[in-house]
Amino acid sequence: MMIVYAVIALGVLIFVHELGHFLVAKLFNVKVEKFSLGFGPKLLGKRIGETEYLLSAFPLGGYVKMFGETGFIEGSDAPAAIDQAGEQFKEQEPRELTEEEKKRSFFHKPPLARIAIVIAGPTFNLLFAWLAFIVLCMLGVPTVTPRIGEVLKDKPAAMAGILKGDVVTAIDGKPVTRWDEIAEKITASKGRPISLTVKRGAEEVGFTVTPQPRVAQNLFGEKVEGFAIGVASAGEVVVEKFGPVQALSKGSDQTWKVIDLTIMSLVKMAQRVVPLDTVGGPIMIVKMAGEQASAGGSSFLAFMALLSINLGVLNLLPVPVLDGGHLFFYFWELIFRRPVNPKVREYAQQVGLMLLLGLMALAFYNDIVRYFTGQG
Questions:
Q1: What is the fold of 142-240?
Q2: Strands 72-73, 231-233: pairing kind
Q3: Active site residue 18
Q4: For residue 34, what are the β-bridge partners?
Q5: Does residue 284 contact residue 291 with C-beta atoms inside 8 Å?
Q6: Which of 18, 101, 150, 184 is the catalytic position?
Q7: Is 272 left (phi over 0), alpha (psi -120 to 50) or beta?
Q8: What is the pLDDT of residues 181-214, one digit of tens each?
Q9: Range list for CATH 2.30.42.10 in the chain
Q10: The predicted structure's pLDDT at residue 51
Q11: Could you give the CA distance from residue 81 to residue 73 in angstroms, rounded to a whole number?
């Protein structure tokens, strides 16, 4: 079942990505010849209008083939000549597009139109994640309450008189409803005294606490300076639901946080702060898809949102063969009023393909080490 869940997750996200390219291409009157979920040999196919919709063998990607992508007609772009026996010739000489054909050609659209078509795929992935987070906020989000589960001896909270079981309700007069809000406000204090209001039984009690500096680790394992008062969460979890307006705000915040975290993860990986053995591939996706689906529909939707943001951000990297690489070339053309030299572009795409294959090999290797040898 894990494989089924992974195929569902990847299938939806690939469809969303390619749908972005497809719809914006249609918006700019570009003829779309093929819309494929998956790569490789065709499993199923149906032509509707001028577009052939395909389900292909390898479900790790997809593509939208647009008419006139190279600026001339070659191979399947051209209507094949027919001999006297009525059979089509497969081999054809490349030819220039006619003026009528150029009106539907991707290559002959202005740079801004091509940029819009290319950027639409990653954008649709980010929009999908945004909508998913909004829906999740409306369905209910597991939240750790601000109940204190432990007060460390001789630390600021203990010396102020705070006790285990107290529920923090406000810091500096501002309401607190989640444990992460406590951590954020203590860190933001920079060590200045703060006032805490806690609920103890049926009454509310106020305290003044001065956070102490401490060295901790962030999500990337880096040592960072922070502040603490010496309390730990009780681990009490409740489901918090939001109305449509609040869900819109909360979902937007969460989307941006995940985008920011994804970009920072790539930066930290380039800086070698995050080790390369953390890179995961298809096997990791299959395992995580199964785990999240077993945890429930909300967990699976959250997993898809995270994966969609990763797909959107990675595709925007300025690497040839990815959407970001194409965008680089089109922005170059927009700025310098001339396209990139075809030879330069060809070499760049070869290098980009080698980098992508290398990354895929690394991901597969890490998956094998992680799940088949128990290492990494």
A1: Pdz3 Domain (2.30.42)
A2: unpaired
A3: yes
A4: 52, 65
A5: no
A6: 18
A7: left
A8: 998 899 888 889 999 999 998 899 999 999 999 8
A9: 142-240
A10: 94
A11: 13
Q: Given pLDDT bands bounded at 50, 70 and 90, which one contains residue 375? A: low
Residue 37 has pLDDT above 60, yes or no: yes
Q: How far apart are CA 151 and CA 166, in angstroms?
A: 10
Give the integer Cα–Cα distance in Å for 189 and 184: 9
**Residue 234 in tokens:** 């009780």
Give the pLDDT confidence of 302-337 residue by residue, as tens digits. 999 999 999 999 999 988 888 999 999 999 999 998
Helix axes 323-336, 111-139, angle to 10 degrees: 140
Instruction: Flag whether pLDDT at 346 surpasses 90.
Output: no
Structure tokens at 360: 């895929």
Q: What phi, psi does 373 have (nearest 5°)?
A: -115, -10
Q: Work out the pLDDT band at 365, boundaries 50, 70, 90.
A: confident
Q: Who's near 87: CB < 8 A, 6+ residues apart?
A: none
Between CA 372 and CA 345 the distance in angstroms is 40
Q: How far is CA 134 from CA 1, 117, 137, 165, 325, in A?
A: 27, 26, 5, 32, 31
pLDDT tier, 35 (very low <50, low <70, confident <90, very high otherwise) = very high
